[in-house]
Amino acid sequence: MSSRLIGVGVGPGxxxxxxxxGVNALRAADVVVVPVMAASDGQDGGERGRAEAxxxxxxxxxxxxxxxxxxxxxxxxxxxxxxxxxxGERVAGLLREHAAVAFATIGDPNVYSTFTYxxxxxxxLVPGTVVETVPGITAMQDLAARSGAVLTEGTEPLTLVxxxxxxxxxxxxxxxxxxxxxxxxxxxxxxxxxxLRESGRLDDAVWGSALGLPEESVRPAGELxxxxxxxxxxxxxxxxxxxxxxxxx
Length: 249
Description:
Strand order of the largest sheet: 3-2-4-1-5
Structural class: alpha/beta
Largest sheet: 5 strands, parallel
Distance between the termini: 50 Å
Order of helices and strands: EHEHEHEHEHEHEHEEE
Strand content: 15-25%
Helix content: 25-40%
Oligomer: single chain
Shape: elongated
């Protein structure tokens, strides 16, 4: 019988935002893999990430397996590829020993998730592995709920931009229609604030970081002063809305 690799979205950090289906998948799996960042020597840095902290609310530490991923390696491609290969080999080994291996990822496993790359690697190393995903609450949904920002109405489009792709991509989106959501913009906070100002969308925008955690911050984008923010900060710039209720139906 083929082993199963299940990518489980565990939300942005608040343990209460893991779905019932997600909790059931974590508990039913033989082991739960949690990604951890590598230290400078490529080994486990020892820091507990959001995915692991969330998982431990529902399963015991004895069932979790920490696997090092190159989550923070963006300049050395060879080093990143080697780290991915090592992580894939580790998970492939678990799949050869167990019928069901869950991989916990913050947010959703199909939205900018490390799970995508892992599944591709494992598919080559362990042919026949059945890959499944359990959706999770995304940071933009959580920020919308905590800030009161409405993501979409009527016929409005929604554009999601990772600012790691460059500020130019965000600027183009902001000059278009609909709501724009920016992920991972913390290190380019100054450029993001300027792009919002140039497009006339600064006043209605909101940003948040560490959602659902003790150090949570949810603030108007107008308060951005150019200082770097946490890497996983999220921004919502709502669509321009005129014409009253149902104006864009």
